[in-house]
Amino acid sequence: MKALLRLTAILVATVSCALAGTEGWMTNWAEAKAKSKAENKPILINLTGSDWCGWCIKLHKEVFSEQAFKDYAAANLILMEADFPKKTELSPELKAQNAELKKAYLNEGYPTVLLLDAEGKKLSEDIGYLKGGPEVYVKTIKELLAKSQTAQK
Predict the structure, then answer these.
(1) What is the value of pTM for the model shown?
(2) Is 120 buried (19+), middle (13-18) or exposed (0-12) by CB count in 10 A?
(3) Average pLDDT score over the chain
(4) How many domains does the chain have?
(5) Helix (H, G, I), strand (E, B) or coil at 52
(6) Is 9 within the bounds of a domain?
(7) For residue 7, is it within any domain?
(8) Which are the contacts of 127, defined by CB distance < 8 A and separation ≥ 6?
(9) Domain of 67: which CATH number?
């Protein structure tokens, strides 16, 4: 019985950590595009292997989980995550959606992070992992968005 309780506690903690890791990130592509259009904000899409890709885990830990990034993103971006986990089973619908996003956007590997407009058109090349924490990441996003807006004029 104690072993079962211990296993249950570990499972709950693991699920809680997994859910906390996606805080603020949408997983429904159609909803992310609709929100992008309604709020007139670009989409930052993260194609990730959240539970097995070392660079993805590092990016989440050093950038996406930091308050400076969260604050900037909340005010300026729609966050979309397409996850390809090995330890977590996704619904068939989510797997199918993410497979389509992988075909459309995956660069050479994980993580692939892109800025997109509300229609899904690329506004940047792959940002991926950048050394320097949330400040460097936010600065890079701002520069890429400024460059994109200049190119559209």
Answers:
(1) 0.85
(2) middle
(3) 89
(4) 1
(5) coil
(6) no
(7) no
(8) 113, 114, 115, 137, 140, 141, 144
(9) 3.40.30.10
